[in-house]
């Protein structure tokens, strides 16, 4: 027999105004926030406004019902995406955004096999300097969509001569299976005006344009190139179509 859980009305009241329902193709996206989040950014404390979202098949504005389900679900085994917002993101005439795919090795451990950790910190720095913007941190994008365990196996193949594209293909995956539809829905819920997208990846531009979003510009983000990731970066340009507009010419062969 299931147990009906009842919450303190004050708890529900505090949470209700911080939860927003966004309709999606597969049910609903529940967006919670904003939450003040002081971030250590290059030794300086910068306060962002943090949101997190959850996909759910059930569509309801009875948020107590949704909250009651969470304790029966092990959300820690799943991944939820989130977004850091800076400045007057909703109303500023221009705003800078980045869709950043989760990278356990680069973002957390600081791995130099890729440029993800650098791009994460650099995009936050540029958003802060620009004054208005948002960084979307996207779950289920590890290894361009293959997951962390599969990414570890792909790394073994890369250590044995395969490039980053062939490693994914040899494991039975496509080169890039990432989907940006949820992030785009959250973006449009937070801002209706045009944005500038920080990326080297034309697939992200295409996703925004196909969704009908207004783009003011694209901002390139290159850097932290080393002997450890040069082949990886060259492969992204040569085989994945990334735009090589680095001012350093970092990805050209010596």
General description of the model:
It is a single chain. The protein has a domain at 35-53 and 80-141 and 178-240: Rossmann fold (3-Layer(aba) Sandwich), CATH 3.40.50.10990. Helix content is 35%, strand content 24%. It contains 10 helices and 8 strands. An 8-stranded mixed beta sheet has the order 1-2-3-4-6-5-7-8, sandwiched between helices. A hairpin with a 2-residue loop joins strand 2 and strand 3.
Question: TL;DR of this structure?
Answer:
By secondary structure, the protein is α/β, with parallel strands linked by helices.
So how many helices? 10
Q: Helical percent range?
A: 25-40%
In the CATH classification, which architecture of the domain at 35-53 and 80-141 and 178-240 applies?
A: 3-Layer(aba) Sandwich
The whole-angstrom Rg is: 20 Å
The spatial strand order of the largest sheet comes to: 1-2-3-4-6-5-7-8
Oligomer: single chain
CATH superfamily assignment of the domain at 35-53 and 80-141 and 178-240? Answer: GTP cyclohydrolase II
Query: CATH fold name of the domain at 35-53 and 80-141 and 178-240, please?
Result: Rossmann fold
Structural class, by secondary structure, is alpha/beta
Mean pLDDT: 86
Would you identify the regions where 5 or more consecutive residues have pLDDT less than 50? none
How much of the sequence lies in strands comes to 15-25%
Which CATH first-tier class of the domain at 35-53 and 80-141 and 178-240 would you pick?
A: Alpha Beta
End-to-end Cα distance: 68 Å
Number of extended strands: 8
What is the H/E string?
HEEEHEEHHEHHHHEHEH
Sheet with the most strands, sense and barrel status: 8 strands, mixed
**What spatial form do the alpha-carbon principal axes imply?**
globular
